[in-house]
Amino acid sequence: MITVKAPGKLYIAGEYAVVETGQPAVIVALNQFVTVRVEPAHGMGRIQSKQYQENSLIWRRQGDEMVFDNRDNPFHYILSAIHLTEAYASEQGKPLRLFNLYVDSDLDSADGRKFGLGSSAAVTVGTVKALLQFYDLALSQEQIYKLSAIAHLDIQGNGSLGDIAASVFGGWIAYRSFDREWLRAQRNLVSLSELLTMPWPGLDIELLTPPQSLRLLIGWTGSPASTSHLVDQIKAATSRSQAQYKQFLRRSRAVVEKLVQGFRDGNLAVIKQQISRNRFLLQQLSQFSHVHIETMKLSSLCDLAIQAGGAAKTSGAGGGDCGIVILDRTVDADALIAQWHKIGVQHLPLNVHLIQPPVVPRLREARSFCQQEKRSRFPCIFSEKYGRALAYLL
Ligand code: PMV
Ligand code: MG
After folding, report:
1. How far is CA 313 from the centre of its chain?
2. pTM summary value
3. Contact 125, 167 (CB under 8 A)
4. Ligand 1: which residue has its CA nearest to atom 13?
5. Which pLDDT score is estimated for 62?
6. Whose CA is nearest to atom 2 of ligand 1?
7. What is the DSSP string of 203-264?
8. Which helix (H) or strand (E) is 72 found in, with range?
9. What pLDDT score does 382 carry?
10. Mean of the per-residue pLDDT values for the chain?
11. Which residue has the CA at smallest separation from atom 14 of ligand 1?
């Protein structure tokens, strides 16, 4: 039996803007996982999940057509991930086999409500990784990201795929999305295997190290929100307010770039300042688009955190789900957590999940690994891996 875990995530900054090519966001992977198990099957295969069931379908009418909206059903991400990974395995000359695949998620609460920690992304990454192992295919983190991003894009269609990057690379990341139009065009021109080795225009992933003094606190509102529907609403609204939207994009980029610099410099004060600015920008976006991002509960969650000395904002698409707080580690958060409790906000005591890049097994492989990575478009991931590979060479 193959067992693979993929972590959930939270957006820290840059939301909504990041769905546009090249716009930056900061995202963090958390120690809540989707676990995928695969075993060979005989006669008939089974795909089974405790949390995800195909027991209702959302659809609308378009003329005489019934059009289904599968974007909030994780089952469809599992199927898409299987489809893509098997297409890749076929291209690599692997005979396709029958299997049972089991999915278990701690990204959904015991009563079936989602925390907003990115279960669709984690389930996609988990399924891709499990099946790659099943077919004995070794891909780099960058290639796993690309395969999972295509599988996710085929279902949701309107996301930035930053949650996929967080689930593959782990830890804190600065992320810029690739050009999805370019990808759409390339898919008709080159094979999947070629696509996974090509540089993707716009894509940039940098691993960040937070200052020692930084503490991330997460509050859960208890009400789930649909990212895909909120992004649809923002898209529709912003196409009517182009000038304000362009200004939002410019400001969001500036704020997130300063935030990332704050991480590079290990400067908690700068990080907190930019988090507060990003909250303000998202409030402005909400005002001119008339899309409700910061609900009343999220506002109270943030205001209480600010009174306690933190910088706070909504996380991700908002509309419910979680709020995040950046605090100095020396601040006692117990009083804030108790206040949250009184207004129905639950503290999620989660930690950041780090993923070790694959360790290079042999000297010769280490050398070619270094040469290969030198051509990579991921300088920081490269330098991290390079450092590891070099350490091995020495
Ligand atoms: O609500 P979440 O955690 O799924 O985050 C969505 C973030 C957006 O920027 C609004 C959309 C996206 O795909 O990046
Ligand atoms: Mg959300």
Report:
1. 18
2. 0.90
3. yes
4. 159
5. 86
6. 316
7. -EEEEE---TTEEEEEEE-S----HHHHHHHHHHHHTT-HHHHHHHHHHHHHHHHHHHHHHH
8. none
9. 38
10. 90
11. 160
Q: Are 369 and 49 in contact (CB under 8 A)?
A: no
Any atom of ligand 1 within 6 Å of the Cβ of 15:
yes
pLDDT confidence bin for 191, thresholds 50/70/90: very high
Ligand 1 near 316 CB (within 6 A): yes
Q: List pLDDT tens digits, range 98-139.
A: 999 999 998 876 676 778 898 899 999 999 999 999 999 999
- For a mutational test of ligand 1's pocket, the pick from 32, 163, 221, i.e. the residue with the most ligand atoms closer than 8 A to its C-beta, is 163
H or E element in which residue 195 lies: helix 192-197
Q: How many Cβ atoms sit within 10 Å of the Cβ of residue 156?
A: 21
What SS3 state is found at 291? coil
- What single-letter DSSP state applies at residue 159? S
Identify the CA nearest to 29 among candidates 218, 169, 170, 176.
170
Ligand 1 contacts CB of residue 155 (under 6 A): no
Q: State how far the Cα of 190 lies from the Cα of 187, in Å rounded to an integer.
A: 6
Which ligand has an atom closest to residue 228 CA?
Answer: 1
Give residue 103 CA to ligand 1 midpoint distance, Å: 23
Phi, psi of 118 (to 5 degrees): 85, 45
Show the CA angle centred on residue 346, arms to residues 345 and 347, nearest 5°.
Answer: 120
